[in-house]
């Protein structure tokens, strides 16, 4: 009998040997020197893009591609300042601050050869607002442009605030003075689309067809899109502006981060931004790879939201509890345990905003002060009913962050329980009133303006019963006052002061703990030239070229 | 025979109807919101409400089901909530990848499994048989996803012998087919083994050997033909199991097939896509069953 | 008239025959080892060491530590001891595997018995239902259900019945829901086989005899037919457990299994994939564990089939 079952044991022994052999950590290969394709940039994506229709496309990953096919009125310079693109110059603002007048450059053409006119902008923006288009981007303009609301609700058949008095002049009337409208005008949502390229399809499928057969005014055109497999863009020889160095851009879909990294290291991809943590640590310590990293602090921040309507953060003592939480978190340790892919956050607005400078110092790490504040607030910890911290488990490194937070809070005597859920469960739950007491979330800029963080996350009007972006359900008359003042202000410098005052109020009330700011880390191959990061667009493909390493 | 096929077809139609009801019920019992997938995280509540109405999600359930069924009959499986593609188109475009992968997997089953089964039946109870038995049992127990990731890591990434992922040429199918096939190969080795053992004991085999026919002829021409009957029947019934392995394999090797599509659809709550892929999978399973039934009756001499 | 034959030899008791079969023996050893580890782990290691992050389990860069004296199988991405996690994972796999199998067997046996015994519409309805469930590949159905339940989990926090401690603990932790899901997709094969056996057996003499002496149908089903189907059921139970354990690992790998930080083997592999270059033990260890568990039950099932049902035909 022992001999017969010896064979089963043999199999197990083999497995154990394999295990032992596998326990030696591997060594990295050097950066590849072959595999590049002249003139072609090869990229990888986890999921297929949803749509190349500028009214619909809203993935962060898609924006750098979209701006190669479509170009809106304005663009950014190398930093965060706006410059004209399809517009001839920055627009004139009327005396009452509500109407912008854009003059278009002449000779800007769509890839089908037709010139871009002011009418195209009226058509495209109207289409954006049309409920049939089902555009999420509509929310950026529906409350800003005069008459947009009525049109979207079906009460009017055009948007009265959009007018094209002549071929190259576009007039936009706003509901109230709003300097951030210019930032919105630089988003790809507001790029022009040619009416004939959309309406040549039958009405039922119009938008789905255009989404896969886009026609735009950018330097590249879509050559091929095999869904979930690959997409190929090629340079438009008739582009009206300065031609880019690249001849083609290829995107491969369906690649998880791990697979993408493996393909990159074997030279099958040229650029990657989703480097898994262990590979980042391995490569950044390797002198052969170090020069191919590009880093930039990005305007995105992660917060620990403390729901001001739920215990223990509500009531008259809630503020002290929230401040205690702020002093309890060791952000440097958090950054270290996240392999240095973040930088500690001080205020609730990330640092890279033009003309904006929050004068406060924020809360420093001081667990003793935390305990004092908790005692003053009369906080009593109940391990049977811990504070439940929710997080979407796809948030980058979210689980690790949550663990550190949990440990730091335990150190000041607060029992925390983690509840990781998928992102589409997390959002509705955390956005619902009186449901989630404490959550971990992030917010990334749409444009570099403090209102994109303050108004969206901390104003009373951002609170709604079931889909609140204001996950701390924080409402302060004084903060609102400063935010509203800033929203209406037309003097750029005074605006910033108003927002700084608002941030001051918010920081004092501490509805959130600002944890870390995002750091973009990209890796390119030795044959990719001109790669640098941009604070809004991240990467601008028109700057890149492929040449021998 | 024709009557039997017709009755099977009718049965299958009823089954598929049942499948559509079941899947509709499951996907529409979800309390949370597919609109979130379409609208993205930054849309305000009003925009979301407008999108919800456009997608027809505010209508009563039976109305939604009726509309869906009417669409299915005309070949329209709806549009994806996430990408807006027509579900029918999405499925048909991705079907070839899955088909090629499945053929590759089945090829490994048969090329590796059948000869091993024959060999071990012939040399029964010798060391070759025992070792193969152990290896086959281990192969059956290997998780597909584990094997796939390890193979990819070693042979594509570390050694660079094969492509890491994607479906650009036939080499891209090698590792995925092996991944998919190893588990089944072990199973079929065992199956053919036991079937062959039974057949080899039959009188007509002894008679064939007595007539002086060479061993390979005896083995492959006479014995295998009969031993292979249970293999054929099991092959058809295992389509469901094959589709399960396909999900893991396509996800790891980034193959643009139905398995990856179904997985993505579930993870992003893309209701029409979930319904479409499950329905399509059910059609494949049911179709394979009918085919097997027909082939079985043709091949099995006992039923003639 | 012949002379009296010498007394026939006493038949070998079934369990002796079973353990003489080498497959059953090696399978039992593996399963026994698994059960032993699962039961005794809490005696040696506290559960919180399997789920809580430990900063001293990570090196200066925040990366896992290789196997050492302190951590015999190394640590994972959050600094947790891999050996302890794998051991606790055995509890999850075994619990989910066995109880899901029991649920599947319960449903499958009932359906199979009634469908096989009562001809006519009972059989037709039950078999149609079985066909519908079998037409959907188990993994796809399990995926859809598990995804649905995961979503419902957050909503249940506000539902009135969530206050009941049973639901709050089980549904929240996810063990119960995965158990249900796997059980729901696994019963159909069992139902088919049981039905086939009942169809063959119900024409036999002992059933006629039971009917003749006035046994009710229910009595016949449960007291006469069931014991005769039992050997097939036992074999199915073992093989089914191999499948349920594999399915639980698969669902965990895809991200719809028992939610973290529970140390499910499948989830551990998914988490450890990115670390294959620097920490291969994260993927190898749980994988070997899964193979061992599935292998054990497969050997057991295959061996029991050889012993209990040697003339088993694949297609009923």
SSE blueprint and pairings:
The complex is a heterotrimer of chains A (549), B (304) and C (316).
Chain A: H1 2-22, E1 40-44, H2 63-69, E2 74-76, E3 82-84, E4 92-93, E5 99-103, H3 118-129, H4 138-141, H5 148-152, E6 162-166, E7 169-173, H6 181-185, H7 195-199, H8 206-212, E8 220-226, E9 230-235, E10 248-252, H9 257-265, E11 271-272, H10 277-284, E12 293-306, H11 318-328, H12 331-337, E13 342-344, H13 367-377, E14 387-392, H14 398-411, E15 416-421, H15 423-430, E16 438-444, H16 451-458, H17 477-488, H18 492-509, E17 512-524, E18 528-529, E19 545-546
Parallel strand pairs in A: 1-10, 14-15, 14-16
Antiparallel strand pairs in A: 2-3, 4-5, 5-7, 6-7, 8-9, 9-10, 11-17, 12-16, 12-17, 13-17, 18-19
Helix pairs in contact in A: 11-13, 16-17, 17-18
Chain B: H1 2-28, H2 35-39, H3 45-54, H4 61-73, H5 87-122, H6 127-141, H7 144-158, H8 174-200, H9 203-210, H10 215-237, H11 239-252, H12 258-267, H13 271-299
Helix pairs in contact in B: 1-13, 5-6, 5-8, 5-11, 6-8, 7-8, 7-11, 8-10, 8-11, 10-13, 11-12, 12-13
Chain C: H1 14-20, H2 22-44, H3 48-51, H4 82-117, H5 121-135, H6 138-156, H7 165-173, H8 175-201, H9 205-212, H10 217-254, H11 265-272, H12 281-308
Helix pairs in contact in C: 2-4, 2-12, 4-5, 4-8, 4-10, 4-12, 5-8, 6-8, 8-10, 9-10, 10-11, 10-12, 11-12
Structure description:
The complex is a heterotrimer of chains A (549), B (304) and C (316). Chain A contains 18 helices and 19 strands. The longest helix of chain A is centred in the first third of the chain and has 21 residues, at 2-22. In chain A, the strands form five sheets. In chain A, strands 11, 12, 13, 14, 15, 16 and 17 form a seven-stranded mixed sheet that branches. Chain A has helices at residues 2-22, 63-69, 118-129, 138-141, 148-152, 181-185, 195-199, 206-212, 257-265, 277-284, 318-328, 331-337, 367-377, 398-411, 423-430, 451-458, 477-488, 492-509, and strands at 40-44, 74-76, 82-84, 92-93, 99-103, 162-166, 169-173, 220-226, 230-235, 248-252, 271-272, 293-306, 342-344, 387-392, 416-421, 438-444, 512-524, 528-529, 545-546. Chain B is flat. With 316 residues, chain C is mostly helical. Helices cover 70% and strands 0% of the residues of chain C. Chain C has twelve helices and no strands. Chain C is elongated. Mean pLDDT of chain C is 82; it is low at 154-172. Classes of the chains: A alpha+beta (549), B mainly alpha (304), C mainly alpha (316). Chains in contact: A-B, A-C, B-C.
């Amino acid at each position: 009998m022992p001999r017969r079952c010896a064979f089963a044991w043999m199999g197990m022994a083999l497995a154990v040997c394999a295990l032992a052999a596998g326990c030696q950590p591997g060594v990295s290969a050097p950066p590849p020197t072959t595999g590049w394709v002249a003139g072609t940039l090869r990229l990888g994506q986890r999921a297929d893009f949803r749509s190349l229709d500028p009214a619909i496309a809203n993935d962060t990953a898609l924006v750098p591609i979209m701006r190669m096919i479509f170009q809106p009125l304005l663009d950014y310079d190398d930093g965060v300042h706006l410059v004209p693109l399809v517009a001839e110059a920055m627009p004139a603002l009327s005396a009452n601050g509500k109407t912008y007048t854009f003059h278009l450059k002449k000779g800007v053409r769509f890839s089908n050869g037709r010139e871009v006119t002011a009418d195209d902008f009226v058509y495209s923006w109207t289409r954006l607002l049309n409920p049939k288009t089902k555009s999420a981007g509509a929310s950026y303009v529906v409350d800003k442009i005069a008459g947009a609301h009525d049109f979207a609700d079906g009460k009017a058949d055009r948007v009265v605030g959009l007018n094209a008095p002549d071929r190259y002049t576009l007039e936009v009337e706003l509901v109230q003075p709003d300097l951030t409208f210019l930032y919105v005008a630089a988003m790809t949502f507001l790029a022009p689309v040619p009416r004939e390229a959309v309406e040549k399809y039958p009405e039922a499928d119009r938008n789905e067809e255009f989404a896969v057969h886009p026609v735009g005014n950018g330097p590249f055109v879509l050559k091929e899109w095999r869904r979930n497999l690959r997409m190929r863009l090629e340079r438009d020889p008739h582009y009206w502006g300065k031609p880019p160095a690249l001849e083609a851009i290829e995107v491969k879909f369906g690649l998880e981060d791990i697979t993408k990294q493996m393909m990159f290291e074997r030279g099958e991809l040229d650029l990657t931004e989703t480097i898994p943590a262990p590979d980042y640590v391995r490569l950044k310590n390797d002198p052969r790879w170090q020069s191919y990293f590009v880093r930039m602090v990005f305007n995105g921040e992660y917060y620990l939201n403390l729901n001001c309507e739920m215990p223990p953060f509500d009531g008259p003592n809630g503020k002290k509890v929230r401040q205690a939480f702020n002093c309890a978190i060791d952000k440097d340790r958090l950054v270290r345990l996240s392999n240095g892919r973040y930088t500690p956050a001080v205020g609730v607005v990330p640092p890279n905003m033009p003309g904006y400078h929050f004068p406060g110092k924020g809360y420093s790490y001081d667990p003793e002060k935390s305990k004092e504040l908790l005692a003053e607030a009369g906080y009593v910890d109940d391990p049977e009913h811990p504070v439940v911290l929710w997080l979407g488990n796809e948030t980058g490194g979210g689980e690790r962050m949550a663990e550190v937070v949990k440990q730091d809070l335990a150190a000041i005597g607060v029992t925390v329980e983690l509840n990781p859920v998928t992102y589409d469960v997390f959002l509705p739950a955390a956005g619902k009133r009186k449901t989630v007491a404490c959550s971990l979330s992030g917010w990334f800029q749409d444009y570099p303006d403090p209102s994109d963080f303050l108004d969206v996350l901390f104003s009373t009007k951002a609170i709604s019963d079931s889909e609140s972006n204001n996950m701390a359900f924080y409402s302060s008359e004084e903060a609102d006052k400063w935010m509203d003042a800033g929203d209406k202000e037309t003097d750029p410098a005074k605006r910033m002061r108003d927002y700084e005052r608002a941030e001051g109020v918010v920081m004092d009330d501490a509805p959130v703990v600002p944890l870390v700011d995002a750091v973009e880390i990209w890796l390119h191959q030795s044959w990719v030239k001109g790669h640098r990061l941009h604070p809004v667009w991240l990467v601008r493909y028109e700057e890149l070229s492929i040449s021998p390493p | 025979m024709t009557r039997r096929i017709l009755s099977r077809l009718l049965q299958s139609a009823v089954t598929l109807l049942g499948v559509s009801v079941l899947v509709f019920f499951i996907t529409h019992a979800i309390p949370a919101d597919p609109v979130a997938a379409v609208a993205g995280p930054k849309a305000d509540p009003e925009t979301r409400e407008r999108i919800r109405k456009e997608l027809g999600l505010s209508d009563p359930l039976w109305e939604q089901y009726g509309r869906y069924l009417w669409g299915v009959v005309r070949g329209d499986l709806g549009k994806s909530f996430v990408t807006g593609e027509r579900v029918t188109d999405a499925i048909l475009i991705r079907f070839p990848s899955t088909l090629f992968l499945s053929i590759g997997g089945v090829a490994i089953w048969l090329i590796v499994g059948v000869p091993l089964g024959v060999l071990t039946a012939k040399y029964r109870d010798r060391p070759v048989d025992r070792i193969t038995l152990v290896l086959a049992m281990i192969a059956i127990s290997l998780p597909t996803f584990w094997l796939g990731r390890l193979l990819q890591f070693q042979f594509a990434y570390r050694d660079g012998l094969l492509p890491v992922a994607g479906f650009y040429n036939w080499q891209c199918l090698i590792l995925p087919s092996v991944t998919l096939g190893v588990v089944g190969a072990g199973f079929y080795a065992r199956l053919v083994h036991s079937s062959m053992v039974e057949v080899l004991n039959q009188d007509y085999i002894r008679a064939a050997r007595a007539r002086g026919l060479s061993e390979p002829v005896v083995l492959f021409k006479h014995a295998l033909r009969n031993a292979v009957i249970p293999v054929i029947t099991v092959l058809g019934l295992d389509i469901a199991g094959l589709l399960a392995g396909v999900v893991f394999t396509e996800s790891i090797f980034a193959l643009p097939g139905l398995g990856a599509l179904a997985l993505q659809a579930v993870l992003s709550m893309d209701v029409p896509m979930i319904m479409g892929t499950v329905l399509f999978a059910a059609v494949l399973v049911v179709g394979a069953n009918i085919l097997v039934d027909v082939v079985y009756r043709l091949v099995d001499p006992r039923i003639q | 008239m012949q002379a009296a034959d010498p007394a026939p030899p006493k038949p070998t008791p079934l369990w002796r025959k079973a353990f003489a079969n080498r497959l059953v023996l090696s399978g039992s050893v593996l399963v026994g080892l698994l059960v032993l580890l699962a039961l005794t782990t809490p005696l040696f290691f506290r559960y919180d060491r399997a789920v809580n992050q430990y900063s001293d389990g990570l090196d200066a860069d925040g990366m896992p530590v290789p196997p050492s004296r302190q951590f015999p199988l190394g640590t994972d991405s959050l600094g947790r001891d891999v050996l302890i996690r794998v051991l606790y994972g055995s509890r999850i796999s075994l619990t989910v595997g066995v109880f899901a199998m029991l649920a599947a067997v319960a449903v499958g046996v009932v359906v199979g018995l009634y469908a096989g015994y009562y001809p006519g519409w009972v059989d037709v309805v039950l078999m149609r239902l079985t066909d519908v469930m079998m037409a959907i590949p188990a993994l796809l159905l399990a995926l859809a259900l598990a995804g649905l339940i995961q979503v419902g989990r957050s909503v249940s926090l506000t539902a009135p019945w969530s206050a009941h401690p049973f639901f709050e603990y089980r549904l929240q932790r996810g063990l119960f829901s995965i158990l249900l899901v796997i059980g729901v997709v696994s019963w159909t094969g069992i139902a088919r086989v049981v039905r086939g056996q009942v169809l063959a057996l119900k024409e036999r003499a002992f059933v006629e005899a039971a009917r003749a002496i006035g046994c009710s149908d229910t009595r016949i089903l449960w007291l006469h037919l069931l014991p005769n189907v039992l050997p097939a059921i036992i074999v199915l139970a073992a093989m089914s457990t191999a499948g349920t354990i594999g399915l639980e690992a698969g669902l965990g790998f895809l991200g719809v299994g028992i939610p973290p930080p529970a140390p499910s083997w499948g989830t551990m592999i998914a988490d450890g994939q990115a670390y294959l270059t620097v920490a291969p033990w994260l993927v190898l260890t749980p994988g070997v564990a899964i193979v061992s568990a599935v292998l054990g039950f497969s050997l057991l099932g295959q061996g029991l089939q050889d012993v209990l049902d040697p003339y088993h035909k694949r297609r009923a």
